[in-house]
Amino acid sequence: MRIFERNPIPSNLDAQAGLIIMGGPMSVYDHAQFPFLVDEQRLIEQTLKDDKPVLGVCLGSQVLAATLGAKVKSGAQKEIGWHPVELLEGAASDRLLSGLPSRFTAFHWHGDVFDLPNGSITLAASDLTPCQGFRYGRTAYGILFHLEVTETIIQDLIREFRQELDAENIAAASIIQKIEDYLPNLQALGENVFNRWVQLIKPV
After folding, report:
1. Which of 1, 8, 19, 99 is the most buried (most CB within 10 A)?
2. How is the chain split into domains, by residue range?
3. In 10 A of CB 22, how many CB atoms?
4. Tens digit of pLDDT for each residue in 35-60?
């Protein structure tokens, strides 16, 4: 559902068995400019009440965190490009992350960060961001870094948001040059994690 194209957001999932919320250039707190964010949070809240799995990626993780009452704010600096992620103690027994390398290089593109929501477990961190991933309950996950990217997605991000790179003094070439080094492993990890998340879904 491409809600930024003004597709209506349902009040509940009905026949859908799970909810995935992806990224975007806006911030969670930009309600006045992007009123659909309020409806999105209502849908997340209802999905959690219905005990259906939720996966939020990048902005999606921020929206999930905000729905759970956590503070979302601008980070000390933007985290863009290839940066290491460290899995924390809570990941060792987690159904999505157990058995993964304790440290790997992931792709990042975010300026906002969030506090750990009450009742949640921190799963991952980076040097710039103490909470890169969390689990709430049994089946709700927020992942700030990107496991889903492809080379095409990365190239599109660089082309679409080149001004953001320039403002942060980040060379696009340095990101592109490292795709071959880091993307294959990241995609293998992503396939593993997302396949495990799908296993959480119960037939409706």
Report:
1. 19
2. 3-198
3. 14
4. 888 889 999 999 999 999 999 999 99
pLDDT digits (tens, 9 = 90+) for 5-20: 666 766 667 878 899 9
In sequence order, what are the residues at sequence separation of 6 or more whose Cβ sits closer than 8 angstroms to the Cβ of residue 82?
A: 105, 106, 107, 108, 175, 178, 181, 182
Question: What's this model's pTM, rounded to 2 decimal places?
Answer: 0.93
Which tens digits make up the pLDDT trace of 25-38? 898 988 888 888 88
Name the residue with tokens 């995935």: 20
Q: Choose the catalytic residue: 58, 79, 108, 110.
A: 58
Q: Could you tell me where the beta strands, DSSP code E, fall in 99-157?
A: 103-114, 120-125, 133-136, 140-143
The verdict on whether 5 is a catalytic residue reads: no
Residue 31: active-site member: no
User: What is the third-level CATH fold of 3-198?
Assistant: Rossmann fold (3.40.50)
Write the CB contacts of 134 (distance below 8 Å, at least 6 apart in sequence): 61, 65, 116, 117, 120, 121, 122, 123, 141, 142
Catalytic (active site) residue 131 = no
Helix (H) or strand (E) holding 184: helix 179-198
